[in-house]
Q: What sequence folds into this?
């Protein structure tokens, strides 16, 4: 049977090993994070079957409604477009009876709703022939999306202003860079290399015009709750507005795109990116580091003390038996 002294000697060794192992597990949890390599799909662009005389697009996203781990963000897009049919067509040539207008959007568009087309400053109803959201997968499973509407425009030789809007869940737009740091990105297409391959918007028939970043006016707005801290952004933000008593932050961009960009790459992109930190996860990370240091410190101390006492006890037992 073990003597009381033996038990007292073994106990700190066992507790030391347990605490050291627990501390090592906490340290591993704090430092081993499945950081994701950033890759971008085809970016934002606008397409149509008839030449647009003006196009403005706004993209909005709210990062405070879903858990970050789900990599899904509620978003909305509004495309305002118009054409001048006063002098664009010879009076002897009939106006187009059916046109298609749409948006190629990066990553995956799911759970779409409120997909609507409206004639601005008018209550007149527009006949929509078809509207659809198509998700395409590139090699490696990287997704891009296309949403478009096919409709019958007014048969009037005048300026016509339309609004195409959609709300959806934007999936795959967030990448984790560390335990508590994340990046959200909106790739915007600067140009595509002709003949390179089958681009997402080409899933739509009768598309004759494509509008890259230098042909569009656009803004990007992202809403961050108070528990998400913005670390840096690219391009630098134009406007930061704090609302609701500091409970949320709305960030706006109106990126400037060079019209002289050479379209030589298969996917040439301007990235609107925000790196941010989840403060609750940051606190969890700090607590894990503190706990690991505390457990390892106490555990190693108990191990050293226990091993020292065990060696002393072994020596005493050998003396009693006349070994030494």
A:
């Amino acid at each position: 049977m073990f003597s009381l002294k033996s038990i007292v000697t073994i106990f700190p060794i066992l507790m030391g090993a347990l605490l050291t192992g627990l501390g090592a597990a906490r340290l591993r949890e704090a430092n081993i994070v499945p950081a994701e390599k950033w890759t971008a799909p085809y970016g934002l662009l606008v397409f149509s079957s008839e030449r647009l005389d003006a196009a403005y697009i706004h993209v909005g996203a709210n990062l405070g409604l879903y858990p970050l781990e789900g990599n899904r963000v509620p978003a909305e897009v509004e495309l305002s477009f118009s054409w001048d049919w006063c002098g664009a067509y010879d009076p002897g040539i009939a106006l187009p009876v059916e046109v298609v207008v749409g948006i190629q959007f990066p990553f995956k568009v799911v759970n779409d709703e409120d997909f609507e087309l409206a004639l601005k400053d008018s209550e007149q109803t527009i006949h929509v022939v078809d509207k659809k959201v198509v998700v395409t997968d590139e090699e490696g499973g990287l997704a891009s999306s296309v949403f478009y509407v096919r409709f019958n425009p007014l048969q009037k030789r005048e300026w016509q202003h339309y609004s195409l809007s959609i709300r959806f869940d934007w999936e795959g737009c967030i990448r984790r860079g560390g335990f508590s740091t994340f990046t959200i990105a909106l790739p915007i297409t600067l140009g595509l290399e002709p003949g390179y391959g089958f681009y997402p918007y080409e899933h739509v028939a009768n598309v004759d015009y494509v509008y890259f970043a230098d042909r569009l006016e656009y803004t990007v707005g992202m809403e961050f709750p108070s528990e998400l801290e913005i670390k840096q952004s690219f391009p630098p933000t134009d406007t930061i507005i704090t609302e609701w008593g500091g409970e949320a932050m709305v960030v706006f961009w109106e990126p400037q795109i060079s019209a002289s960009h050479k379209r030589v790459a298969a996917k040439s992109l301007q990235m609107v990116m925000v790196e941010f930190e989840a403060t609750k996860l940051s606190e969890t990370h700090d607590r894990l580091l503190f706990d690991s240091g505390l457990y390892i410190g106490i555990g190693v101390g108990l191990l050293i003390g226990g091993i020292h006492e065990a060696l002393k006890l072994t020596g005493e037992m050998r003396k009693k038996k006349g070994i030494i």
